[in-house]
Amino acid sequence: MTAGLLLTAPQQATAGPPNLLSNPGFETAGAAGSDMPSCWSKSGWGDNDFTFATVADAHSGTKAMRVSLTRRVDGDRKALVTENTTCAPTVTPGRQYDLSAWYKSNTPDVSVTVFRRDTTSGWQYWTDLQNPPVSAGWARTEVRTPVVPPNTDKIAWGLSVYGVGTLTTDDYALEEVGAAPPQPTCSGTAEECAKGRWEVIPAQNPVRSMHAVVLKNGKVLLIAGSGNDIAQFNAGTFTSAVYDPANGSFRTIPTPVDMFCAGHVQLSDGRVLVMSGNKGYPSADGSIGYQGLKDSYTFDPVTETYTRTNDMNGGHWYPSATILGNGDVISFGGLKEDSTGNVTAEKFSAAQNKWLPMNEVNQTWSYWGLYPSMILMQDGRLFYSGSHTFGNGTPGTGASIYDYDANTITDVPGLRNKDERDESASVLLPPAQDQRVLTIGGGNNERNPAANRITDIIDLKQPSPAYTAGPDLPQGLVDTGAGKRPQTGAEGKMYVSAVLLPDGKVLETGGGLHDRADPVFEASFFDPATNSYQAGLATDPIPRTYHSASFLMPDGRVMSVGDNPGNGTYNHNVSIYTPPYLFKGARPQITSVIDTQWVYGDTQRITVNRPIAKAELIRPAAVTHSSDPNQRFVDLPMTVDGTTIDLNVTSNPNLAPPGWYMLFAVDANGVPSIATWVHLGGASALAAAEQQPSPHEHTFAGELGPAKRNPAKRDSVPVAPSVAGCDRHYGTADVCVPTRFPAEVKATTKARCAWLASHKYPARLKVNGSDPLRLDPDGDGYAC
After folding, report:
1. Facing residues of 533 across strands?
2. Which portions of the sequence form the region Disordered (predicted)?
3. In 3-state terms, what secondary structure has residue 119?
4. 111 closest CA partner among 698, 736, 722, 754
5. Contact 374, 352 (CB under 8 A)
6. Which whole-number Å values give the CA distances from 160 to 74, 112, 149, 681, in the listed order?
């Protein structure tokens, strides 16, 4: 897949004259009465004391701009190119521009900040590109913009000061990057180049994996625990496996407890924190539901062993797990040891390597449900997207922002069909700097309607964020037990997988039409730049519904595992998807990385074998039940000198929490390199001795409505034992006879038994006690 050659050698992309800025050196005075030079404006926000001054201490000519902060609580100040049609340069969507300026500063808290004018919605913040280092003498900073988004006609920019200190700037330039990329070749079939290709590998997954984690060495940890198999649970047989893509081998790992339906997240050092799991299956008569463990372990990718930590404060079957900007982990929700809903927040201290006592963790006593999707925002707050697994009808709008420091929860509006988002997927769209979240599909395991095809998008940069309707999910073929047929009407899918790809798109794949049944064979790309889907991709030949997962590998392909329908079976086939970008000719190569230990606000140098258009860090997957709230794609603005690229690392750890990342370089045709592993957050061997910049946070989502009133302190909330959508009066606990059959199934014994037979349920299911679904009309103790 990587051997295809480009037919023409690509031209080097370079910037050059003309400088598109008016008055780049501040030499032209402003209009009469103005205290700023022509085409420059005072800009900034927050609680700080500042001065702007045109000074004679120039790099060239007779004038320069000096901005000083003498007191700061929050915010920034900057001289900004005036946002009007006369002064702001015109740009072309799809092109890139090099920004440069000469500067002197005595603070590291400086950022190159860019705004863009959307032809529909007007001027808006675009992105921060760079943190120029402290410099006592004149120094030049240069950085390349990302590709200009669609519907953008102008940009404005300036150097922001967001710490106490002084910044002097002069001789700005904005130059268009030349040389169009060569036309891509096709190194596969026409269909592969348009749709990609799926293949099922010869080796089978040896465990019934419920959880998948891509490790810092490129291997994949697959956790089963008991694998939703009550016989394995009763025997105390708990399993995990490590898959090595380099040789296609699986290694089974001793697993200490039943990590079935645990939570997991990668710590900053690359270990995997696995929390809670399954203390007990539901009783045969359904009077008690699943029970959560307090146990917690770390998995070491080097030794491939589990080590126990201290216990959590309570059981959390189906907990959330989100890493914070300081490396701590916060967890909510799930079921306690007695099957009630857990209302306590848990916090794992990275510094102390332990779960903190409850009295050291802020508590709202709120119940967040099962696997609530809690996404870290750029200012350290958490966005609950409305995606979850099991348990519908939660109060409020379905989505909210949680401020841990203030200990407040504030609803945000706009999420459609909030009680049909069970087993939906939510992702922080590329790049993380854009702070937009996409929520895809879902259903309701209690009422069991056909899954929906709704997608909603929220822009957390807005003062009062609200979900807005996205395009409907594309439709494919569905197998409802009588062979594949086209989806119709509003039919969508739940259990969907959403995978961030290095070209900046999102692959959505897999899923089912009903709870644990009726697989949908469809895949598409969502493009964040255009808010649109590319339908009609190649589809995974293996059904991927409940307990399935898809995730990005370091070579740019996607791996898919699992399928555990309600009849209790499990599919051990492993599929690999090769996206179309790997059929577009030769891949760029990262030929050197000077340092793999990166710090925030740093500049890191790489070399490549040919021109690239962008570079990014992608956090490796830790996914279960459609949920991976830590998945993120972090843009690395570039300073380009031929094939030597300086990458500018964000100063904000909330955008890229500490840990190991896959570094991809991507050419102008979207073709990615093979990833290089780098670590963000530790001391860099090549880091400058002077201060590192502070996080540059913005006042996004700063005009929310009133916070909800937190409940009084309580121990738990009641949760129905049937929360998983299964009627336990039939068969064993790993078989899920639906509490509610799909609407098209008549409420008769004959119709229900026919549905069970068509979905390959065991022929004779033992009736445990009563027969609420009337599946045993002859009273012999067995259904159907």
Report:
1. 526
2. 1-28, 691-718
3. coil
4. 698
5. no
6. 13, 6, 22, 23
pLDDT at 14 over 80: no
Residue 124: HSE in the Cβ half-sphere, 13 Å Cα cutoff: 17
Amino acid at 55: V
> What confidence tens digit (pLDDT) does each residue in 24-73 have?
999 999 998 899 999 999 999 999 999 999 999 999 999 999 999 999 99
Cα gap 269→682, rounded to integer Å: 9
Nearest to 555 by CA among 300, 302, 219: 219
pLDDT in tens, 624-660: 999 999 999 999 999 999 999 999 999 999 999 999 9
Reduced 3-state DSSP string for 649-704: CCCCCCCCCCEEEEEEEECCCCCECCCEEEEECCCCCCCCCCCCCCCCCCCCCCCC
* Backbone phi, psi, residue 754, to 5°: -65, -40
Across the strands, what pairs with 225? Answer: 239
Nearest CA-CA partner of 287 in 745, 757, 729, 784: 729
CA dihedral 70, 76, 80, 82 (to 10 degrees): -110
What are the tokens at 752?
């229900």
Helical segments of 126-181, H only: none
Number of H helices, E strands in the chain: 3, 56
Phi, psi (5° rounding) for residue 232?
-65, -40
> CA 53, CA 79: separation in Å to the nearest integer?
10
Find all residues with CB under 8 Å of 385, minimum gap 6, and list them.
373, 375, 399, 426, 437, 439, 458, 629
Beta-carbon contacts of 208 under 8 Å, excluding residues fewer than 6 positions away, are 224, 227, 228, 229, 239, 547, 562, 564, 570, 572
Share of the chain above pLDDT 90, in %: 94
Rounded Cα distance between 634 and 467, Å, is 22
Q: Are strands 197-200 and 211-214 parallel, antiparallel or unpaired?
A: unpaired
Q: Give 555's contacts (C-beta < 8 A, 6+ positions apart).
A: 245, 674, 675
Instruction: Quote the DSSP letter at residue 247.
Output: T
Q: How many residues does the chain have?
A: 784
Choose among 456, 473, 462: nearest CA to 418. Answer: 456
Which structure tokens are listed for 687? 């880091």
Mean pLDDT, the chain, rounded, equals 95
Q: Could you give the 3-state DSSP secondary structure of residue 373? A: coil
Largest CA distance in the chain: 99
- Beta-strand pair 765-766/517-521: unpaired
